[in-house]
């Protein structure tokens, strides 16, 4: 078994261009080395024990469930991605894997070669969708691969919200998971995107999210990472048009032996752009989190405003947190601030609550909820906010 | 504001300091690096066998280690085209009068004796690779303080030397510490006995004065229990046409309850590669402070670090970097918390101008079991024009319980409001910018002894001359 040219054969009925693209991604996969500890990005992220080949059975070919608003406005295309590749090649072919590059590393290549499931959403110029669109990706059995890919194209002055949910039926499943997303934001568009990752506790998960923002567009992107024994998420925003604004937020809650890795990029390619990043996480037991993020202000990106913060709440003596917030600033007419903190529940806060007669476990829980509170308010739409709050509640409790 | 003579830093050392004294050497090793040259250096210095062996072993390590792949571009260094050892005069001078006249003339221009007369305890000025002038106040000797050049220390205090040399920074630590251990020469050696406080800062001037001349000084400071010392190192160097390499190693041991402060003002000429490894070990309740100013050089890579070895140890790094045209200052600090209940702070201020690039690179590591530690890092960067660049690369690893770690950084330009305010008071733009920059680094300057603070302000003024508005 393994991911081979033969195993591509199960993906029948795709257009030639997609088949060729998969083959070329597989070729990249075969040629790329396993990331080693000498690569800066992987120094603290050990994938040497991961053999994707043992999970080469694809669990399903188009396994997502789309929760559609009752009536979609005219011109909106919402389809499984593989179907859309057949029906709308003119929209899909030039964009697919143009932001999330297949040859970036072994895992992006494998994802590009074998993705199944996932959504294509196209919203034509000027269209506003009030109800959020929800894509749910399920895994039912262990030992397999589930590799969905979401491609979102927002036309000029559009407004809508989208939620990707990655759900495991069995929390102890093993397997290989990914959940990558490409978002194209046209001039003046406003997009809310939320990804909630709650795969089983024993899977390997790799996600690459990248958005490109044109003039005056606004992206509000929110990640929730809860599942996987290993989860690596890249969140990248490329601010390509003046006046664009990216808000990148995330929460994570790790327990047991979970390992979470986050890699972020706020790439200010032109001036008058704004980005605001906040990643907040709590770590229990012997879990471990690595955050490495970069704000890049390119030469001509004057009057950019960028913020980046990573806050870790360490709840046990065996949990470990690494935080590497980086800046590369090539223009002086900017405002750029970043910060990182790693710390326990504030003993003074705890003392205050205890002195009010609240038992320690309850007080701790309240403080953890409070820690996440400010960032939960930034979840771009109600439906996702409620979902995340409930999910978090059950894990903290 | 006083008018500043029109000079450009990095181009007029000849006028300013009257450098370029003709080279006059007692011994000059051949260019290049091989076991024979290393043996020759060791033989010239009449070193014990263990040191010769250590040098040769370090050369092997240097050969094997790859060049660092991060930080600045070091590929232009040609290790085969460097003199690894020069000896400028035959014997150590005991008094100022005994110094060779040309060397004395150079120091006169730098104002060393002036400073000494005022309040310096000892001047240990490094001319080329060898300390040629060395004086100690009688008081220090009476207290049992040893302040000498490192070569003499090896000769005169072999036991003490062997016990500590290479223990804080082993040769295999990195490529340049291996190089230094192989060819080191000169530097300062300080031993402060138990309970002794040295109230007056000890200082040495370092200079590079020969083309293609590498300086590999080696400094070792031991603060015994309950002692205190402040060591100041200041550098000026004349400009030369080909690249020069400066690769020092500074090792410091701060024992229980002791405190050590190490202040550097580095103003190498803008063709010098300054690749320095500085590290201190701080034991129970000890305090180590690095005050580090980087103005000159073409490339500086320097991250003073403190290993907090026992509970109660405290580490401090205060760093200022100024990068002008063609310069890359890759500076920062490292705090390694090995023991619980240890604290550290790093404050970094950097200024980039005229296409210069400053990078803060730092590492906070809290080892498992090092519970209840606190660490805080603050980096501020000022970009004076739109050609310049600033980077921040902070690495924070927390593997212990109940640790509070914070990192903050901001990057900004000189604010228009501040400029407008000062200019509306009749101050020219250039002067106003200089004032703002001096204000920006004030937390650093106020930690310096007066004459250094004055010198630094003046250097900033020179750097700011003719700056783009």
Short description:
The complex is a heterodimer of chains A (397) and B (469). Chain A is of the alpha/beta class.
Number of domains of chain A: 2
Q: Which sheet architecture does the biggest sheet of chain B show?
A: 11 strands, mixed
Rg value of chain B: 22 Å
Mean pLDDT of chain B: 80
Q: Can you tell me about this structure?
A:
The complex is a heterodimer of chains A (397) and B (469). Chain A is built from 7 helices and 20 strands. Chain A has 397 residues and is of the alpha/beta class. In chain A, helix 1 (16-31) runs antiparallel to helix 4, helix 5 (347-355) crosses helix 6 and helix 6 (360-376) runs antiparallel to helix 7 (382-396). Helix content of chain B is 25%, strand content 34%. Chain B has 469 residues and is α/β, with parallel strands linked by helices. In chain B, helix 7 (150-156) crosses helix 8 (158-164) and helix 10 packs across helix 11. In chain B, the strands form 3 sheets. In chain B, strands 5, 6, 8, 10, 11, 13, 15, 16, 18, 20 and 22 form an 11-stranded mixed beta sheet that branches. In chain B, strands 4-3-7-9-12-14-17-19-21-23 form a 10-stranded mixed beta sheet, covered by helices on one side. Chain B contains 13 helices and 23 strands. The relative contact order of chain B is 0.09. In chain B, a hairpin with a 2-residue loop joins strand 3 (123-127) and strand 4 (130-135). The chains are: A alpha/beta (397), B alpha/beta (469). Strand 19 (320-329) of chain A pairs antiparallel with strand 22 of chain B.
């Amino acid at each position: 078994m393994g991911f081979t040219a033969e195993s591509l054969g199960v993906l029948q009925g795709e257009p030639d261009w997609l088949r060729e693209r998969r083959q070329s991604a597989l070729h990249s996969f075969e040629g790329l080395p396993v990331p080693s500890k000498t690569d800066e990005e992987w120094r603290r992220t050990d994938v040497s024990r991961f053999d994707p080949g043992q999970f080469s059975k694809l669990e399903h070919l188009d396994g997502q469930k789309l929760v559609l608003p009752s009536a979609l406005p005219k011109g909106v295309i919402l389809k499984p991605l593989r179907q859309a590749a057949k029906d709308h090649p003119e929209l899909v072919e030039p964009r697919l894997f143009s932001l999330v590059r297949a040859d970036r590393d072994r895992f992006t290549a494998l994802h590009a070669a074998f993705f199944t499931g996932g959504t294509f959403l196209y919203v034509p110029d000027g269209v506003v969708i009030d109800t959020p669109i929800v894509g749910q990706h399920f895994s039912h059995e262990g030992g397999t691969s589930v590799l969905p890919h979401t491609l979102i194209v927002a036309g000029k002055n559009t407004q809508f919200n989208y939620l990707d949910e990655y759900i495991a039926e069995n929390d102890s499943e093993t397997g290989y998971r990914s959940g990558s997303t490409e978002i194209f934001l046209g001039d003046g568009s406003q997009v809310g995107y939320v990804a909630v990752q709650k795969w089983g506790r024993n899977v390997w998960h790799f996600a690459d999210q990248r958005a490109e923002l044109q003039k005056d567009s606004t992206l509000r992107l929110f990640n929730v990472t809860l599942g996987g024994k290993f989860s690596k998420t890249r969140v990248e925003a490329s601010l390509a048009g003046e006046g664009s604004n990216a808000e990148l937020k995330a929460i994570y809650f790790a327990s047991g032996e979970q390992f979470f890795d986050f890699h972020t990029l706020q790439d200010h390619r032109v001036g008058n752009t704004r980005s605001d990043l906040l990643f907040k996480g709590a770590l229990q037991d012997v879990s471990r989190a690595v955050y490495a993020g970069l704000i890049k202000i390119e030469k001509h990106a004057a009057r950019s405003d960028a913020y980046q913060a990573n806050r870790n709440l360490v709840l046990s003596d065996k949990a470990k947190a690494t935080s590497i917030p980086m800046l590369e600033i090539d223009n002086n007419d900017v405002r750029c601030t970043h910060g990182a903190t790693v710390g326990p529940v504030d003993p003074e806060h705890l003392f205050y609550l205890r002195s009010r007669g609240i038992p320690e476990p309850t007080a701790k829980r309240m403080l953890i909820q409070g820690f996440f509170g400010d960032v939960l308010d930034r979840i771009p739409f109600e439906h996702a906010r409620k979902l995340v709050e409930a999910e978090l509640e059950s894990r903290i409790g | 504001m006083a008018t500043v003579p029109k000079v450009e830093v990095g181009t007029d050392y000849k006028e300013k300091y009257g450098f370029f004294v003709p080279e006059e050497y007692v011994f000059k090793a051949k260019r290049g690096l091989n076991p024979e040259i290393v043996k020759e250096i060791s033989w010239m210095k009449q070193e014990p066998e263990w040191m010769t062996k250590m040098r040769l072993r370090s050369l092997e390590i240097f050969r094997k280690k790859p060049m660092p792949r991060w930080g600045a571009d070091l590929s232009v260094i040609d290790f085969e085209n460097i003199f690894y050892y020069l000896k400028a005069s035959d014997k150590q001078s005991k008094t100022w009068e005994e110094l060779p006249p040309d060397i004395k003339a150079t120091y006169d221009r730098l104002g060393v004796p002036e400073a000494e007369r005022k309040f310096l305890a000892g001047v240990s000025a490094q001319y080329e690779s060898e300390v040629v002038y060395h004086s100690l106040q009688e008081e220090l000797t009476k207290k049992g303080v040893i302040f000498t050049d490192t070569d003499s220390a090896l000769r005169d205090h072999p036991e003490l030397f062997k016990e500590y040399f290479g223990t804080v920074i082993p040769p295999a630590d990195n490529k340049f510490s291996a190089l230094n251990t192989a060819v080191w020469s000169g530097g300062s050696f300080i031993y402060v006995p138990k309970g002794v406080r040295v109230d007056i800062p000890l200082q040495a001037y370092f200079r590079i004065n020969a083309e293609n001349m590498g300086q590999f000084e080696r400094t070792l400071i031991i603060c015994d229990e309950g002692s205190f010392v402040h060591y100041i190192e200041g550098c000026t160097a004349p400009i030369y046409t080909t690249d020069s390499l400066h690769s020092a190693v500074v090792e410091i041991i701060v024992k229980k309850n002791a405190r050590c402060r190490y202040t550097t003002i580095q103003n190498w000429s803008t063709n010098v590669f300054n690749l320095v490894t500085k590290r201190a070990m701080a034991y129970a309740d000890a305090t180590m402070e690095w005050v580090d100013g980087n103005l000159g050089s073409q490339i500086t890579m320097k991250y003073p670090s403190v290993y907090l070895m026992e509970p109660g140890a405290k580490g401090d790094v205060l760093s200022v970097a100024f990068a002008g045209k063609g310069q890359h200052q890759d500076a920062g600090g490292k705090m390694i918390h090995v023991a619980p209940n240890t604290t550290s702070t790093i404050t970094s201020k950097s200024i980039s101008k005229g296409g210069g690039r400053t990078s803060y690179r730092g590492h906070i590591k809290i080892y498992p079991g090092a519970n209840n530690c606190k660490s805080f890092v603050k980096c501020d960067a000022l970009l004076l024009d739109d050609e310049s660049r600033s980077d921040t690369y902070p690495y924070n690893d927390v593997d212990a319980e109940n640790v509070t770690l914070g990192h903050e950084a901001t990057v900004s330009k000189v604010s228009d409001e501040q400029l407008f305010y000062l200019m509306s008071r009749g101050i020219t733009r250039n002067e106003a910018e200089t004032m703002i920059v001096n204000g920006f680094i004030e937390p650093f300057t106020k930690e310096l002894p007066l004459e250094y603070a004055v010198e630094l302000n003046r250097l900033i003024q020179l750097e700011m001359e003719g700056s783009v508005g």
